[in-house]
Protein 1
Amino acid sequence: MQLVVARIGRAHGIKGEVTVEVRTDEPELRLAPGAVLTTDPAGVGPLTIATGRVHSGRLLLRFEGVADRTAAEALRGTLLVAEVDPEEVPEDPEEFYDHQLIDLDVVTRDGTEVGRIAEISHLPYHDLLIVRRPDGSEVLVPFVSEIVPEIDLGEQRAVIDPPPGLLDESRAEVASAREEEAAASTDGDGDGDERGPATGGA
């Protein structure tokens, strides 16, 4: 199974390094030197990671065959994709890959149906569950333990304990949150989509 583990941002310096928007909670595994990643668009890759380092809180990568700023800048916006065993799970029981969460039924503690998880949005401050309601509208649920106290993969459900107003107000917040995510992706400064693992309860 293929999962997006990072998005390449802008070039850094003149020796071919790039900033990356990390989309996995296991960058030391997925984005280690020597890792070979396919890409989206496919024609850019595959790319082999030559070096990696953290600078001012951002992960910088250099790829084999990318030796200068011009070549690095040409990679901007490329998604890095890793091949992951679909049976693999994160070591931390409180972490989940995105594919484990997509399509889970979402209910409140009293069993009230809310909808189904359609998407995971990875923002710098926390992850968000985009929950599609039966009427087609969407609810934005912060993926933190206080609000999502239980993920039951066996029952294929997520239990939420929404604060007052969340299920009504979050509809209006979906657009603004996505705009913020898009802005962070555009400048390549986001710190954190495998497409998974997501945390809060790649």
Note: The first strand starts at residue 2 and ends at 12.
Protein 2
Amino acid sequence: MPDSDGLLYIRFQTSGDQNALEVLFNKYKEGLVLFIHGFVRNMDVAEELMMDTFAVLVSGVARYKETEDALFKTWLFAVAKNQAFAYLRKRKFWFVSLEKDFLDNVESDDDSQPIAVFLKKKRESQLYRSLKLIDADYRQALYLQYFENMKPEQISRIIKKNIKQTYNLLARGKEALRTIYERMGYPWDI
């Protein structure tokens, strides 16, 4: 049986229920923008690509398959990642490592940036700042786990690693994060 977000999407696809799409949009728009921003490093482009992600949903180009192990959120973030990669391919930004630069050069201390406003609403700004200091592979996996509350099985589908590799990335990332926390003088309570 699909999750409730999956049911909303299916209801939109089958009956054209605009309210269902609006609920999904409002629920995921900020998280998607932040996730995409980690790849493209431009807030305006990230917002555009978030809209493109929802355009893919509306058009039905990508199809959500109802399965027990594939939540709608996992599928949606995979579509968003594909949109970010397509954007970077079109712009020929191959000199930028797509996965390695995830969340680099983001200043969450600057109150004027929309990303800082988003993070201030959440208690995770300390975590977000610390994530910038660890390896990009760890950073991406931990972002999905901590900020998007995804399970390792979902994360493995998005980052295209097998489940064992995903568990290893999460474990090593947490250890690297703990070291950063201790160096910054924060208590490790994650």
Note: The chain is about 65% helix and 0% strand.
Protein 3
Amino acid sequence: MNAFCRPAQLPVLGLVVGLALVPTLAATPGLAASGPPPDFILTGNADLAFTSPDGATGIEQYMKDSGDLDVKWQAWARRGEQMTELKPEQGYGAGFRFTPDSQWLVRMQKTGSGEQDLYLYHVEKGAFVSATKTPFSDLAWAYFHSRPDTGKMKLDYHISANLVKGIEEAYRGLGVHWPDNRYLVISLSGEMDKHPKNVAVKGLADWRCRYDLKTGTFDVPAMFARTNAEALRWEIRR
């Protein structure tokens, strides 16, 4: 197992040299009620509404269409009368998943055709705030490129980070017995411009790593070794 972590003296959510996590206490919002601007309209799509397991937080998504394909989306967490924007503003709606204890929230954000980022939020002083200064997916990719077995791999398009299903049951469906509310499993994929003529598509497909919410570290459990090796060799031949 190859662990990836920040120096021990740093707080659990901090980022150094672009790889570790960054404190976000300054980003903690006040308790004053707020909400989206009046030109942002609440979507009527039920698939874009999410509620925390404890029922205390609802995720609402609002859209502003200025025409000429200029569409903007904002996601807001509502807790009672208080609303907190889950930044950043994006060009698409997003999917969200909570940990069972309702303390952590992962945003699965489409950014383009076949491309997706991840954002991580945590409850601070009763409101969800960003747990990382940069997108959570950027940290996962930084970990990927820091490893000797994957660091030289260059991907050009359809670059996507995904949260593997199973967070609600601590991934017991994978045959593990990890503690509840402790780990996130991330899947990374992408494709390359350059490949042999007899290959239609070549790249990375479903390479997995694990993130520890308690320690703020990435690693690759031994159970992922075989499928990760296959993910690095993925291609579709003509």
Note: The longest strand covers residues 199-212.
Protein 4
Amino acid sequence: MAGGTERPGTTGEGGAERDEDAVSRFVERFAAEMTEAGMQRMASRVFAALLADDDGSMTSAELGRRLQISPAAVSGAVNYLTQVSMVGRERDPGSRRDRYRLHNDIWYASFASRDQVLTRWERTLREGAGLLGEDTPAGARLVETAEFFAFLQTELLGILDRWRESRRAVDRDGGAPDGHRGSGGRRP
């Protein structure tokens, strides 16, 4: 650790000691990756913090303390994340505080919602090609783009179906499919 000092770790589920500085570095590194891919910076940080939390949920105050950001920054990030269906908002029982929680199957849901976006884009592109004339260079480009989105949509649906089946197999067998537990999701 910097300067030779270590912050005490916390105990996570399963009783393992957790290095909070290392967790913070992971959160920032993953948030930077998501920001590089186009997500808003503060939304990336909030999402990564929730992803690294055992419960996958925190209040605004907890997020502010964890990330050392203002309540306004938390609010803006959470608004974005709820709009894109990555995080849900719920009320703490007996409290006026909101709790922000990752959705179950977050990645599946996120990519499944992209299917709807691709459908809309494809439809709009085909309409544009019709207006421009499919035999014009611009119209032909729009047709090709629409066909790409149609292809991508078909492939995405197949991938999502295979993912669901993979998860069902894990649930049935009580472990990772094909003995790949701990491989970081990579297959040979």
Note: Residues 86 and 105 are 10 Å apart (CA to CA).
